[in-house]
Amino acid sequence: xxxxxxxxxxxxxxxxxxxxxxxxxALAACQYIGGPNVKAFEAEAAAYAxxxxxxxxxxxxxxxxxALRAIGLGPGDEVITTPxxxxxxxxxxVMCGAKPVFxxxxxxxxxxxxxxxxxxxxxxxxAIVPVHLxxxxxxxAPLKALCDKHGLKLIEDAAQSFGADYAGRKSGAYGDIGCxxxxxxxxxxxxxxxxxxxTDDDQLAAELRVLASHGSRVRYHHHVLGYNxxxxxxxxxxxxxxxxxxxxxxxxxxAIADSYNKDxxxxxxxxFADGHGRHVYHQYTILSDRRDTIQKVLTDSxxxxxxxxxxxxxxxxxxxxxxxxxxxxxxxxxxQRCLSLPISPMLKDEQIKxxxxxxxxxxx
Length: 364
Known about the structure:
Blueprint: H1 8-29, H2 36-49, E1 53-57, H3 60-70, E2 78-81, H4 88-95, E3 99-102, H5 114-120, E4 125-129, H6 140-150, E5 153-157, E6 165-166, E7 169-170, E8 177-181, E9 195-199, H7 202-212, E10 216-218, E11 221-222, H8 233-243, H9 246-264, E12 277-278, E13 284-287, H10 291-300, H11 320-323, H12 329-337, E14 338-341, H13 349-362
Parallel strand pairs: 2-3, 2-4, 4-5, 5-8
Antiparallel strand pairs: 1-9, 6-7, 6-12, 8-9, 10-11, 13-14
């Protein structure tokens, strides 16, 4: 029996008896856009995150784009971020006409190297966008101090860390705006695309809502260039059901990571939790000089695995003209050695043993 990266079929089987009648009720109500479940989900997500405002949108990419627009990002501005992440973190900066400035990563957490951020700040810097990569919160206090000192905005990319904790707050709730994604592989996932922006700032919240709704403050009056970016009612139904189970699912991810850590000790470099926050293991990512050998053995054994990310953003073709001469040695080395293993909350203990056994076989 093959082992997938994320067992969505098993998760659906677990939740089907609750999801299907709730979806049918939403279909029968025929309020497909901006319906009661969207409003209820936003309120429940805000309460869960401990913030005043949660504004839903169509995707995590839209969440980042709208957040950057809301802070006034535009041509001539710069945003400091990580090169070791999904492309949307940086492409949305470019969509605003601004320039991403990539800073190298910490070799153990894979998050931004905080010691290098201050040196990257220039008079053109508008914001810092840390990514809580693979579910581990960035140590945000030093970044917040830098932002306060230089008058910058702190936008959290929490697409991979919904439910993680940092300094007594949920991931995404520490900075000016937190952005997350409900893509089906995420810790809190929809049955399609979806996104969310959270903030305690009333003015920013109002601007986020305007930008997500065609730039309109009054119906059919359009004040700024906005977007058609909405979470639909059916996805909201599903997310409401899953949100109630998020902490349990994240706890299971942590337990799986603990099992991996014990079984793989001395074989590979296992994920490092820096203790500044609660890691929720969106991915369980190992490092090894024999990464390709491990990947082949796992694949041949019917065990899914993946390289996140094989090409850092500063080496991507789309950034060749602006970042072609940039060298970030830690990021480049990690990209050559990293491999992510299955981490579904549905993963069984015997499957963990099969996975770690295959890795042991590959290395002996």
